[in-house]
């Protein structure tokens, strides 16, 4: 990595953004890795399981807009502090009262959405410290906090087997508390923050067609990533008969591959351009999702195919956020919220559609095929706008970054 990158910004804030994002994502998808054990205790149907793991994703998607607005009004650090306090309080209450009904789990799921909305805080907090030529790398590092989903899949099922799934909510308070203290000490708002805008000015960004394109593109890349992260433990358990703990390990491997590739995707986008790298990732993701939709003979082969799809989606996440700050640098707070919201909605759609596909048709093929088609549509859409982007806001005389 170029030495100029470390001199250009504020590394303590970048690390704080990553850590906050990491533990927040860990608890955001917590119901997914615990899904097998929770569904056995509460006797949930396939559709109920899909809805349970998808609800935090949808709540996080919608709250990202709220958090994005708060970032521009209150600053990313204060907004992050407020969000962390809400999540810690919700998990603490859930642990103390011991959840015993689906409606209680769903209520917790809504509060876990606040953790998912951390995306709209961590990325602007990091982004505002770095110049255009380093946006992909900076946001790739901060965005690598989605690796928190790995820890959820890796440890939550085992902890639930040892202590009960309700106890996992209390144990999650330990890393959340450590990250909260580190965030307060290390994070610092950039002096280059844009002035707060009126609500009318916030909504004005939706008049730009490019905003809608970015929202759609991220709904596929991040939606695919978080939708699979939330669903694969249940998938491996249902399709291949793996136990909850073993299914969690398989899910963790897939999610790890996708997470580590996000900063790689951002770095690659800085080097060859976000449009080119994103186009490649859509094609790869669609290819592997189509393969997995037809069913694979064993869990290990499925692990390989899902891993390849997750790597493409993870790199795509980094590539999208190499492009967004080039087009909407002054509106990065609200755009992060809107684009992040769309990513969450994509994840909600995928997770819930897989559950419905299983309940209605007896397998998961329809859910995977439809999402693969969305990736193909995104590829075609990117092909259609790339010339205009490269000759307007992405032209060499407009930005130092490669678009």
From TrEMBL:
Classification via InterPro entries:
MFS, MFS_dom, MFS_trans_sf, NO3_transporter
MF terms per GO, please? nitrate transmembrane transporter activity
Membrane among keywords: yes
Which example biological process does GO assign this protein? nitrate assimilation
Judging by the UniProt lineage, the source's domain of life is: Bacteria
Q: Which family is this protein grouped under? A: Belongs to the major facilitator superfamily. Nitrate/nitrite porter (TC 2.A.1.8) family.
The reply to whether Membrane figures as a keyword in the UniProt entry is yes
The cellular location(s) given in this protein's UniProt record come to:
Membrane
Keyword annotations: Membrane, Nitrate assimilation, Transmembrane, Transmembrane helix
Q: Which PANTHER family match?
A: HIGH-AFFINITY NITRATE TRANSPORTER 2.3 (PTHR23515)
Provide one Gene Ontology cellular component.
membrane
Q: Where exactly are the transmembrane stretches of this chain?
A: 12-31, 51-71, 78-97, 103-126, 138-163, 169-190, 211-236, 242-261, 273-294, 300-320, 332-352, 364-385
UniProt topology in membrane? Multi-pass membrane protein
The record lists the lineage as: Bacteria, Pseudomonadati, Pseudomonadota, Alphaproteobacteria, Rhodospirillales
Record's protein name: MFS transporter
